[in-house]
Amino acid sequence: LSSGFRAALSERVRWEHVDIEAREWTIPAALMKSRREYRQPIMWCMALWLAAHLRAEGVIFGSDARRVWWRVRAQAGLPTLTRHDLRRSFITRCRRRGLPIEITMALADHVDLSTMLRVYRRVDADDVRGALRVTWCRREDSDDMATGRAAGSLA
Prior knowledge:
The chain is mainly alpha-helical. The chain contains eight helices and three strands. It has a three-stranded antiparallel β-sheet with strand order 1-2-3, with no helix packed on it. The longest helix is centred in the middle third of the chain and has 14 residues, at 83-96.
């Protein structure tokens, strides 16, 4: 969730692609869907996990990733959740936190804006509610609505 990796890539990332001290991934173009080298910072939470599991070589997550995923989602009571849902969540979080689309695309290793927007730009009720709050409500209006008072009343 903290990397935004595609599920297939997460099974091929190797320890030699990680620089823990620099907190950076450098994944060769041959492993990337875009066929471009992927060089991105590693989030601090992922860096802590990687440091705790550090090995000299080999695949980091490996084919165990699927088995672990199936077990975790079953324990969480989310049998239909997919690993790609985690990628969608990562990209949605980037958008909701206001990251520029170019940064989100770079983190997600997307090269086509139309695909990025079509596949990952989902809007839900919380998005609409937040936009309405920012666009239409002043703080005083929101307080009045919460207390049931007419806007601008002194009572």
